Amino acid sequence: MSKKNRSGVIYSTNPDFEYSDSSQDEAETLAPAQQDLRVWLDRKGGGKVITVVKGFIGTLADLEALGKQIKVLCGSGGSVKDEEILIQGDHREKVIAWLVGKNYKAKKAGG
């Protein structure tokens, strides 16, 4: 491992010090039938609402691909942050119906 990848380590007086990288390996993406997704409605400042899809287990690339498909389905903007898919507007029913059609286990959550 090169020294450039050792962020936060400046110097150690321990002669047996071994630098360990704390980055986590991404989990392998589960099959759609094994995913247990929850679809929430969240309110942001200014009275805006967003649809949030939580519970996806898999790689970031697969999560972003799923997020893009859902954004196209809803015809709305959104993003993928903190292992959640955020879609602008209230699209819970449409998202749940589409996910169930693609063999995902999905249901409404929250109040």
UniProtKB/TrEMBL annotation:
Keywords: Initiation factor, Protein biosynthesis, Translation regulation. It comes from the Bacteria. Residues 1-25 are annotated as: Disordered. One of its GO terms (molecular function) is mRNA binding. Residues 37-103 form the SUI1 domain. Pfam families: SUI1. One of its GO terms (biological process) is translation reinitiation. InterPro entries: DENR/SUI1_TIF, SUI1, SUI1_arc_bac, SUI1_dom_sf. Coiled coil: none annotated. Belongs to the SUI1 family. This is Translation initiation factor.
